Amino acid sequence: MKRAFKLEGLNCVNCAEKIEREIKALEGVNFASVNFMTTKMVIEGDDSRFDEIVKAAQGIVARYEPDVVVKKA
């Protein structure tokens, strides 16, 4: 499954890179990208674990950028 999200309020390039790196390391993730310029996050992963992956990704975003709102794109 592949899904895109909008990261409203993302304002740190370094944080975006860290978020992407940590999401890529999650079990079941096949592909992850965080584009700072477009504030778009794309995650592709195992269908059976996708909800778990998205929840973990939201936690990672909140840890680095607590004010960012993650919305489905």
From TrEMBL:
Where does the record place a coiled coil?
A: none
Does the keyword Metal-binding feature in the UniProt annotation?
yes
What GO molecular function annotations does the UniProt record carry, in alphabetical order?
A: ATPase-coupled monoatomic cation transmembrane transporter activity; metal ion binding
Q: Which PROSITE patterns match?
A: HMA_1 (PS01047), HMA_2 (PS50846)
Domain named HMA is located at 1-69
Q: Which UniProt keywords apply?
A: Metal-binding, Translocase
Output the SUPFAM superfamilies linked to this UniProt entry: HMA, heavy metal-associated domain
Q: Pfam families, per this entry?
A: HMA (PF00403)
Q: Give me the Gene Ontology terms describing cellular component.
A: membrane
In Swiss-Prot or TrEMBL terms, this protein is called Heavy metal-associated domain protein
Source organism per UniProt? Acetomicrobium hydrogeniformans ATCC BAA-1850
